[in-house]
User: Fold this.
Amino acid sequence: MVDAVTVVSDVVSILVVDDHAMFATSLGLALEQERGLSVLGTAATLAEARRWVATSPPDVLLIDHRLPDGLGVQALPELKRLAPRMRIVLMSAAVDDAALVSAIENGASGFLSKSATVDELVQAIRAAAAGEVLVSPALLARLLPRLSRDRLGVGTELTPREVEVLDVLSQGSSNSDIARELGISVNTVRNHVQNILTKLGVHSKLEALAVAVREGIIDPASRT
Assistant:
């Protein structure tokens, strides 16, 4: 659900969190070769990641699911509190649906297989920095109905058009897809998305979907 035309103009800073030193170092070196990407460093534990994020938060945090001192998913809320605007991408060879649902609810921008190519990783990092959703439409359709329904009363200020945008977004659509389906321009979609994020108090599309499902603003289960 990433727009091919999405461009991140500024340099995107990255922190790699993985306890396999060779993997983390190799990944960092590969990413440093890409124009517009800057690797701040690597961390091998959640404790190290917290220290990095508290003092020099990256734009995008690539974090392994299983680390020596805990699970990446469980650390997401604290990491988001330390750096609310930081995008977090969970990396793993295999994660079950329950963990992925937890990652969505805890503020992850998406998930990435550790078997992904460098090109796929670079695209994912740029997309995460731009606020895109890093989940396939099929996986999104499977996970969204499983999100929590504990309502907190937010989202009442959303306009009918903004709800429409959320509903189409929940189908795995990019900004271009949404524009075509609703008959509006991509710039108008971007404006709607920004308004949605502001009104829901979130910083990414995936967080917005999690809140919208929780609050009953949209109901993905009704399409299944």
